[in-house]
Amino acid sequence: MRHQDDQEHLHIADREFSSRLLIGTGKFGSHALMAKALEASGTQLVTVALRRAEIGEVRPEEHILRYLDRDRYLIVPNTSGAANAEEAVRLARLGVAAGMARWVKLEIHPESRYLLPDPVETLLAAEVLVREGFVVLAYMNADPVLAKRLEEVGVGAVMPLGSPIGSMRGLETRSQLEIIVEQAGIPVIVDAGLGAPSHAAAAMELGADAVLVNTAIAVADDPCALARAFRMAVDAGRIAYRSGRMQRQPQAVPTSPLTAFL
């Protein structure tokens, strides 16, 4: 059984979370709507792009951090927009300088069409940030070898994508995710491409420790309703994974004995 199977709560580094649904804060129609959706989701960890955190001289009503209750949520800056390790490390340090937690969602994608994470730069940045005492949540392609390399470096969790960011295509990388989950000694958080609650449930059923959702909820007609649906789907998927359910079979399996008839 995997490292967190006998635990009800999610553990990352020295923190414990009762919710296994993580939420990103981009693309909402307003900060106020975002705050309501976060509450509906039950999340305890939210990610904020440093370029959206508006650290500096802005009007208070425009400041996203004003709408995030630090007593309720762990606010984790992410390095979205960084094209290489140097930029990502600089953004992570900026977050700490602005008073945010020494946690970071490490996200490096040098091209803008597919937004796929750069494995080489991600590993380089993770090495630096772990040495500096950051809890690193490493966004990555669903590459089992890279996942183990990042674990060996000392990241707090790996975040393999289900499909490209914002694509809503679900678990296109399922086979690789299964290997990552099987081999991992740290939390596996499926991030990117989850467009429906059923996608989140499927990720949890295969043994992921958590999922991160942003676009699907933010752009929904009713973000609060969809946030609640994702919350229930994550719980259902986790319960299903822990239930010891029967796995897929190559042929039919009778549900009733076929040896006698009335």
Automatic annotation (TrEMBL):
UniProt binding sites for 1-deoxy-D-xylulose 5-phosphate: 166, 192-193, 214-215
Active site: 105
MF terms in GO: thiazole synthase activity
Domain Thiazole synthase ThiG: 12-257
EC number annotated for this UniProt entry: 2.8.1.10
Superkingdom field: Bacteria
Name by which UniProt lists this protein: Thiazole synthase
Organism of origin: Methylacidimicrobium cyclopophantes
Lineage: Bacteria, Pseudomonadati, Verrucomicrobiota, Methylacidimicrobium
